[in-house]
Amino acid sequence: MLAVSPPVPDIAALALPRRAILGVDVLAIDGAAARALLAQRLEAGAFTRVAFLNAHCANLAAERVDYRGALAQFVVLPDGIGVDIAAQMLFGARFPENLNGTDFVPALLAGIGRPLRIGLLGGEPGIVERAASNFAARLPQHRFLPVADGFFAPGEETDTVLAALEAAELDVLLVGLGVPRQELFVARHLDRRHAALVLSIGALLDFTAGKVSRAPEMVRRARMEWVWRLGMEPKRMWRRYVLGNPRFLGRVAAEKLRRTRRA
């Protein structure tokens, strides 16, 4: 009689340390543990969604119940100094490691030796093709497949994208449609037919394609990449950072006060 492999448990059922940041459960594990968890689930063929929570995402989750509900279906990893400060305020300890998607996703893929079929979805026209070429140069063990840019409408155009994803027989899908559209799209439309591992990756495609420059290493080590992005794209980023960061810290402080009063 053939042995039957036990089903892989849903990620929510796993006893993993989590910290709730403005209503979103974020995994409190380091990068090595997170990469091992996702690689194990990928090898088992278990469908897994991954998102990254920074201060801007947390603000949106506090304001939009649909986005917050979508994130409940994801493995959520901590991104940036804002959520670290929040964890310190609310739990007395920061997250073990900053797991921003721009660094985490390439490291995850680099650590998987067997060839993967990796789809790219999002960005302006031409971005997925350039990103696929640059990814392939850095990670030649994998095949990177540009599926579609991010300019598809609900209805027939979305159906066409979903059909293309299913036909591509992907192991991994990188979705860069911007927050919160990418998480809502993944939660509403994607399942194991489209890929085993789906990662919502924000601006990673733009960075990889060379459309947007990353901050120098010294700035990234100082946890000040948001300042660099604000300087590079002030018209697009000033609301997110100049208005959004104080709003986020105010929300965390209010949550801290509520917890203190309940104690």
Task: Give a brief rundown of this model.
With 263 residues, this protein is an alpha/beta fold. The protein is 51% helix and 15% strand.
List the helices and strands and how they pair.
Blueprint (H helix, E strand, L loop, with lengths): L17 E4 L2 E4 L3 H14 L3 E6 L1 H9 L1 H7 L3 E4 L2 H11 L9 H10 L6 E6 L4 H12 L4 E6 L7 H13 L3 E5 L4 H9 L7 E4 L3 H6 L7 H5 L3 H8 L1 H29 L1
Parallel strand pairs: 3-4, 3-8, 5-6, 5-7, 7-8
Antiparallel strand pairs: 1-2
Helix pairs in contact: 2-3, 2-12, 3-8, 4-12, 11-12
Q: Span between N and C termini?
A: 56 Å
Count of helix runs:
12
Could you tell me the mean pLDDT? Answer: 92
Largest sheet: 6 strands, parallel
User: How do the helices and strands follow one another from N- to C-terminus?
Assistant: EEHEHHEHHEHEHEHEHHHH
Please give the number of β-strands. 8
| Unreliable segments of 5+ consecutive residues | 1-5
Strand content: 5-15%
Rounded to an integer, what's the Rg over CA atoms? 18 Å
* Global shape: globular
> Helical content, roughly?
40-55%
**Spatial order of the strands forming the largest sheet:** 4-3-8-7-5-6
